[in-house]
């Protein structure tokens, strides 16, 4: 009885009505009323009725089985929810990962449009976490110089004078050929660097001659043997190119540390296969760990090999900090082998990616400011800070973002998503679907057409230049001459409604050589004891559980 009444329930009402109308129209048609006013609605309602019946018998979507036809509205609304939120509901400070305000800043600077704001800040300056730069009573004049930093320690024979604001690693594969071309045009025009990402050194990187940082990940793309291991000959052949200014070993990135990657076979086009040195149409795997080394000492030896094969170019590595003792193990390996990288790029947990599991993007890895300051202090603690330059990446968009990380130890900054916005990215967050609406992150040839290379190359150049100019204004307002002079003493953070702390308190600095002399700083003491140059794992004798206390990374034995 209940089953017989089912078509009359509210849940099935729409389907029942559609079927009823279809039947009435069918009879009308049979009775000879075969005008288009009957036939077209008949076709429409018959299709709807068939969809509704299919909804009831399909087994994938429970909600469709219970609410045939009606539940499709839910799916449609789910689909357009991000757009509705972005276009109608989002305020200037809303929107993640980047607020509307931040995105607008990039678009305005990229288009050379007015980038000023009227009427005062929209930030709540009394909210916990609010941060500011202290200005000087005697500001300096704004300098026009482009702010550069020389990268290359004593073992490097070809130091590179880098801009302090560069394009972070993003692979050809994650980005479209047109996006790579436009980024490199901007880099060439503005004399800043463009990092290839781990997807290899492609023809699109080469076309326009902008400075390249060649990144080598665990897949050794563009320099691998058939079995996927590192090929020294191929590496040397590319690395000696005059366009490549530095070579970078990638250990991890903040958005997915410890996670490898797979580019599905369907996306491995002939071009991607040729660039990476992998078979076309076959899943292309980046393992989660390197095969070229397995201990900190071997890692330093590999760095020395890369430097030698590149003809003495600055050689470094990129990572997001995880277990502190592992980075300290690398420091011990530097001391033991006397091989030092020329640079280290610290990526923050908050960094971006083309695709990663939610658990990794949300909860693995150390945020940039803590990670950077930890690396900066560790190098001070082993007396190596003056020979290793530090790069930083992680949601760096504005001049204030640059100034703040330079105060915490960075010598230069990289931005990935900032430059994606300059390319026209609208933060639709469908990079992993190959359906990028702006042609930035798709391999679909038709969608790529949306990105007009000369126009976007100009925008990349404009964004970088306007940001560095804004930084020059901050430097002057703080009474300084160069952004490298920013120090923790220049920044403050409200930590509670009634308390403000200087960065000097929040991020205390080690004294030179303090780790070598035996530190009692609780952020480092236990981890330093646990670190071994011979293995990444913690030393068993010191392997007591530790608890990480923020802020300031105190490592307190539990
Ligand atoms: C689309 C995309 C692709 C990326 N590909 C790489 C990569 O190949 N290698 C790498 O080290 N980092 C990669 N990253 C991470 C960035 O280089 C950068 O470290 C991180 O996104 C932080 O910068 P952001 O906050 O400015 O985006 C990628 C990021 C994005 C958004
Ligand atoms: S527009 Fe959307 S899909 Fe394209 S790069 Fe930006 S976030 Fe990714």
The ligands bound in this entry are: flavin mononucleotide, iron/sulfur cluster
- Arithmetic mean pLDDT: 93
Please bin the fraction of helical residues.
25-40%
Q: Taking Cα atoms only, what radius of gyration do you get, to the nearest Å?
A: 28 Å
Number of strands: 17
Strand content is 5-15%
- Order of strands, main sheet, comes to 4-13-12-11-10-7-6-5
Q: Number of helical segments?
A: 21
What best-fitting shape do the alpha-carbon axes yield?
globular
Question: What low-confidence regions span 5 or more consecutive residues with pLDDT below 50?
Answer: 543-558
Structural class, from secondary structure content?
alpha/beta
What does the main sheet amount to?
8 strands, parallel
Give the N-terminus to C-terminus distance in angstroms: 65 Å
Topology of helices and strands:
Elements (H helix, E strand, L loop, with lengths): L1 H4 L7 H18 L5 H22 L4 H5 L4 H19 L10 H11 L20 E3 L14 E4 L8 E4 L1 E3 L9 H14 L3 E2 L7 H4 L5 E5 L15 H8 L4 E7 L10 E3 L6 H7 L7 E3 L9 H14 L5 E5 L4 H14 L5 E5 L10 H6 L4 H14 L7 E5 L5 H9 L4 E4 L1 H6 L22 H4 L4 H25 L13 E6 L2 E4 H4 L7 H4 L7 H6 L15 E4 L4 E4 L1
Parallel strand pairs: 4-13, 5-6, 6-7, 7-10, 10-11, 11-12, 12-13
Antiparallel strand pairs: 1-14, 2-3, 8-9, 14-15, 16-17
Helix pairs in contact: 2-3, 6-18, 7-18, 11-12, 12-14, 15-18
The structure holds flavin mononucleotide (FMN) and iron/sulfur cluster.
């Amino acid at each position: 009885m209940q089953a017989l009444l089912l078509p009359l329930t509210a849940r099935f009402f729409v389907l029942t009505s559609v079927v009823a109308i279809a039947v009435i129209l069918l009879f009308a048609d049979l009775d000879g009323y075969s005008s288009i006013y009957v036939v077209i609605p008949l076709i429409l309602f018959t299709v709807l009725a068939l969809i509704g019946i299919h909804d009831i018998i399909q087994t994938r979507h429970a909600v469709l089985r219970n609410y045939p036809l009606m539940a499709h509205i839910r799916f449609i609304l789910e689909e357009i929810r991000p757009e509705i939120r972005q276009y109608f509901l989002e305020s200037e400070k809303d929107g993640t990962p980047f607020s509307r305000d931040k995105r607008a800043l990039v678009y305005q600077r990229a288009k050379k449009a007015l980038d000023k704001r009227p009427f005062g800040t929209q930030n709540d300056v009394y909210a916990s976490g609010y941060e500011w730069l202290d200005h000087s009573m005697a500001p300096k004049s704004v300098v026009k110089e482009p702010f550069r930093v020389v990268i290359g320690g004593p073992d490097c024979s070809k130091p590179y004078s880098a801009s302090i604001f560069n394009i972070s690693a993003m692979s050809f594969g994650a980005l479209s050929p047109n996006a790579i071309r436009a980024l490199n045009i901007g880099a060439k025009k503005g004399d800043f660097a463009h990092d290839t990402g781990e997807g290899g050194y492609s023809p699109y990187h080469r076309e326009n001659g902008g400075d390249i940082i060649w990144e080598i990940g665990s897949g050794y793309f563009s320099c691998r043997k058939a079995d996927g291991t590192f090929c020294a000959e191929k590496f040397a052949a590319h690395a000696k190119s005059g366009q490549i200014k530095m070579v970078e070993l990638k250990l991890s990135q903040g958005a997915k540390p410890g996670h490898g990657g797979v580019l599905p076979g369907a996306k491995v086009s002939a071009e991607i296969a040729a660039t990476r040195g992998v078979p076309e149409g076959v899943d292309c795997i980046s393992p989660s760990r390197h095969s070229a080394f397995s201990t900190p000492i071997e890692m330093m030896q590999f760095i020395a090999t890369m430097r030698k094969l590149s003809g003495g170019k600055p050689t470094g590595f990129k990572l997001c900090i995880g277990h502190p003792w592992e980075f300290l193990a690398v420091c011990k390996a530097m001391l033991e082998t006397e091989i030092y990288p020329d640079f280290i790029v610290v990526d923050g947990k908050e960094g971006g990616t083309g695709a990663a599991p939610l658990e990794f993007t949300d909860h693995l890895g150390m945020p940039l400011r803590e990670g950077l300051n930890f690396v900066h202090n560790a190098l001070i603690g082993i007396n190596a800070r003056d020979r290793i330059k530090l790069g930083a990446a992680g949601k760096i968009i504005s001049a204030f973002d640059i100034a703040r990380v330079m105060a915490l130890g960075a010598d230069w900054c990289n931005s990935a998503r900032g430059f994606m916005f300059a390319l026209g990215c609208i933060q639709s967050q469908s990079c992993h679907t190959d359906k990028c609406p702006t042609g930035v992150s798709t391999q679909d040839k038709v969608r790529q057409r949306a990105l007009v290379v000369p126009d976007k190359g100009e925008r990349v150049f404009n964004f970088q230049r306007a940001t560095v100019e804004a930084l020059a204004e901050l430097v002057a307002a703080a009474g300084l001459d160069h952004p490298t002079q920013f120090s923790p003493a220049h920044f403050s953070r409200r930590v509670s409604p009634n308390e403000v702390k200087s960065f000097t308190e929040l991020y205390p600095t080690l004294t030179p050589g303090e780790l070598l002399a035996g530190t009692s700083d609780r952020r480092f003491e236990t981890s330093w004891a646990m670190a071994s140059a011979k293995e990444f794992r913690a030393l068993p004798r010191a392997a007591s559980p530790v608890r990480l206390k923020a802020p300031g990374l105190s490592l307190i034995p539990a």
